[in-house]
Amino acid sequence: REIDVLWTLKSGASTESSADEPFVCSKFIVAIGHNAVAFLSSFILDSVCWEVVGVVKLWNEWCRTSNTTNVLPTDSFCLFYRLISDPTVLLCQCSCYVAEDQQFQWLEKVFGCMRKEGLQVTILSTCPVADYKTQESTLTLPSPFLKALKTKEFKEQVCCPLLEQPNIVRDLPAAVLSYCQVWQIPAVLYQCYTDVIKLDTVTIEAFKPLLSSKILKSLVKDVSESTKILKKLLTTSETHNNIYI
Question: Given strand 27-32, what is the order of strands in its sheet?
Answer without folding.
Answer: 15-16, 4-7, 50-57, 78-83, 89-94, 27-32, 120-128, 187-194, 145-150
